[in-house]
Each structure stands twice: as C-alpha cells, then as structure tokens.
Amino acid sequence: MQAYIEGRNVNLTFRPPNRGPVRALSNFDIDIGEGEFLSIVGPSGCGKSTFLNVLLGLIKPDSGDIRMGGKPIAGPGGDRAMVFQEFGLLPWRTVQANVELGLELKGIAASARRDVSQPLIEMIGLAGFEGHFPHELSGGMKQRVGLARALATDPNVLLMDEPFAALDAQTRDLMQVELLRVWQTAKKTVLFVTHQIDEAIYLSDRVMVMTKRPGRAKKIFPIALPRPRDYEMRVTPEFNELKLEIWNALKDEITV
Questions:
Q1: Using alpha carbons only, how large is the chain's radius of gyration in Å?
Q2: What is the CA 250 to chain-centroid distance, rounded?
Q3: In which domain, by residue range, is 148 found?
Q4: Which of 59, 70, 221, 226 has the highest count of CB atoms within 10 angstroms of its CB?
Q5: DSSP per residue, 5-19
Q6: What are the pLDDT digits (tens) for 133-187?
Q7: pLDDT, tens digit, for every residue of 91-124?
C-alpha cells in the first residue's frame, strides 16, 4: 500500500519554563495508506497524542519530515480533523449547530450547511435530535455528534484521540460498531489512539505499538481479520492470539 501519510525521524522535545526538557518523540517513523484505519497503542505519556497534534499541524517537531499526500505538513488545514475524548461540543449550540460549526466558520451559507449536516446526522443515527442541546444527550450521542462535526468539513484524515475513553463499556462497544460503519461509508483515512488492545484490533487494518517516552514505533501488527467485523469476532482464537502478541510487545514499555 502506498503511503498517504509519511513520518520520518520525527523528533520533539518540550522545554517548559522552570523545568527540565522532556523528550516526547525520538526518531518516530510512520506510514499510513490512504483509506487505512491505523491504531496506536502505547503506555501513558509515550507521545501518542503529541503526534496527533503534530500531524494536525498544531505542534512543530524539532526535526524530521512529515508529509501528507506527498506535501509537507506546515500547519493546520481543512484536510485533517480531530475527534476528542471529551466531546468538545459547544453547550449553547444544538446538535445541528454543533455539526455545522466548521462549515459556519468557513462562511458557508445556512442552506448549504443544512444540506451537509442533515445527511450526516441521519448517518450517525440522530435524526430527530437536531434541535437538542448537548446536556440532553447521552455520552455516546455526544460522541456521535463530535464525529459528524469532524466529517462535515469533508477532511481526508480523521485523527481520533481516545474518543471513547469517557464512555461506559457497553456504550463504547456500540460506538466501535458505529465508527466502523461510518468509516466504511465515508472512506476516510483514520489514525486512532487508544489504550485498549481489544479496541485497536477490532477497528484497525494495522496496530502500532509505541515505546515508552521518548516515543517511537516499536512494532506494527497487520490485522488480517475479515471485514465487516462483528462482536463475536472478539472471542475467536485469531483475535485473542493477536491480542496476546500485541500485549507482549507492549508490556515491557509500561511502568507502574
């Protein structure tokens, strides 16, 4: 698969005032194919979220090369969108208005915004909730709104930073199914950060294990499980063999 996102020898050190430097990324390499779903797992503080912010264009690395579609990433752009763990919905805006936020900021007319947002709201299963406010929604519904908002500007790449971490276990499982359905429909490139090995295997084409800080790619596991995937796949020998292999690569990087 030809790489759509390429990172080579990415290095980043934070230098906070009144404290010593913190090396976040060290010679970090990554390749992601167009339309691929790649998950990153690693110990806390290893630089997973930091790299998402580098890829989003919010943080500039000290050295290294990061390209998307063959072009260097020099800053934020409409070709990338982030889905956050904490939902990030504006409480004074309705579901429809939250989904349309990025379009509104781009100066798109209200009627054109509605033409984009309504099919997305239907796709995520929230038709009938267009006029509801975030406090009237469950956690899973809020995260679906966040996903629709990210898709509304039609980015090429979705960056997802532990988007289901705040959800209960049952809702999390349902949201994983929902995300796969949306991904297969929207055909976006996805980089997904998680601490859950099961989640990474279930969703992904490949899973990258990162080392402890300073983070780098330790090993990448192809996930050759057939699609579409169902919940029963999680109890198959093939799934659990992959889980054990990934855990064995990850456990030496974790300190307690």
A1: 18
A2: 20
A3: 91-154
A4: 221
A5: EEEEEEEEEE--TTS
A6: 999 999 889 988 999 999 999 999 999 999 888 888 888 888 898 889 889 988 8
A7: 999 999 999 999 999 899 999 999 999 999 998 8
Lookup result for tokens 């009938």: 128
Say whether both 240 and 130 belong to one domain.
Answer: no
Q: What amino acid is encoded at 15 in this protein?
A: R
**Triad 209, 213, 214: Cα angle to 5°:** 100
Mean pLDDT within 230-239: 93
Q: Which pTM value belongs to this model?
A: 0.91
What is the number of domains present in the chain?
2
**Which CA distances in Å does 214 have to 25, 29, 47, 92, 231?**
5, 13, 7, 40, 35
In a domain, 85, yes or no: no
Q: Are residues 110 and 180 in the same domain?
A: no
Confidence of residue 1 (pLDDT cuts 50, 70, 90): low
Q: Are residues 73 and 161 in the same domain?
A: yes
